[in-house]
Amino acid sequence: MSVNTQDNHAAVREPVPGSPPGGQPRSGSSPRGRTPRWNWRTAQSVKGASLTFPFLAGFTLFVLVPVGMALRESVYTTRSAGGLGFGGQTVSFAGLDNFAAGLVDGSFWAGMLRVFLYALVVVPLTQVLSLALALLLDAARRRTAARFRIALLLPYMVPGIVATMVWIFQYSPTVGPLTPFFEAFGLDVNFFSSSMVWVSMGNLAIWGALGFTMLILYGALQSVPHEIFEAARLDGASELRIALSIKVPFVRGSLVLTSLLSIIGTLQLFDQPLLFRAVTPETITRDFTPAMMIYDQAFNVGNLNYATALSVILALVVGVASAIIYRFINREEP
């Protein structure tokens, strides 16, 4: 009986490099040139990514789309056909003319200087007072800290417009309780005068932001390992030394976050001076802050294209200021 060796050799196939013995493909591997099959891990990844869809949809609809519309409006100019504003309107492409006008607008940059000086006082005061309150709550008993935490957070829960109206009533020289209080000590304080209006608004801003900032810093303090405090006490460190040398460095990241949030909110100051203007229009003008000037150009003057250009400039200023302050506060120790 003859044996066909050629057929036998052809039946023996050399194993593919990387394949298991016996020539069987590994489980889960796909043949070369084919797309991988839909498995359980891929399905879980897609399911997890789908949870971000509501945020992405809202971010696109309420942030990206308005930004795109603002950029589009800022490069056009709308003019009335009639000299007195009657007749139709003509829209023409202006390029960067609106931005050039905004960069040399003295009223806009004067308002920017006002809020910058205002932020130099209000933001550090808010951070220092919030940090002090957070350290006091961290040193207190848990039950006591919970009670004060809720009380300090209440001002943040009040809407900004409502809080401003409440404080305007408090500042009123006719019906407010603060003016008679200072008169009892022989002090004549006018909270709506040109020298006190910034103090009045600053007090309102600190009152509203103190509880929120304190809560963030207090939460950061709770994550610090308490074994470090015990070791410091055994070494003879006082509570003040522990707070300044251990607790404060641990909440540095949270301080950077709250400082940036305060700066962004301060540079966009709008609702407080707008309501104060109803009481003291001779002190707070229409272009008192950049946001107020943008509002006036858009809704009173009717120059929407110039207002959107100023909005873009304000957004760039806020972004650059935030980046500079972040690098300054969060720089590495030598």
Automatic annotation (TrEMBL):
Keyword vocabulary terms for this entry: Cell membrane, Membrane, Sugar transport, Transmembrane, Transmembrane helix, Transport
Name under which the protein is recorded: Multiple sugar transport system permease protein
Keyword Membrane: yes
Localization (cell): Cell membrane
Stretches assigned to the ABC transmembrane type-1 domain: 112-325
Spans through the membrane: 51-71, 115-138, 150-171, 191-218, 250-270, 306-329
Predominant cellular place of this UniProt entry's protein: membrane
Family indicated by similarity: Belongs to the binding-protein-dependent transport system permease family.
One matching Pfam family: BPD_transp_1
Record's signal peptide: none
Biased composition (Low complexity): 24-37
Domain of life the protein comes from: Bacteria
UniProt KW Repressor keyword: no
CDD domains on file: TM_PBP2
PROSITE patterns: ABC_TM1
Bilayer disposition of the protein: Multi-pass membrane protein
Region of interest called Disordered, as start-end residue ranges on this chain: 1-38
InterPro entries linked: ABC_transporter_permease, MetI-like, MetI-like_sf
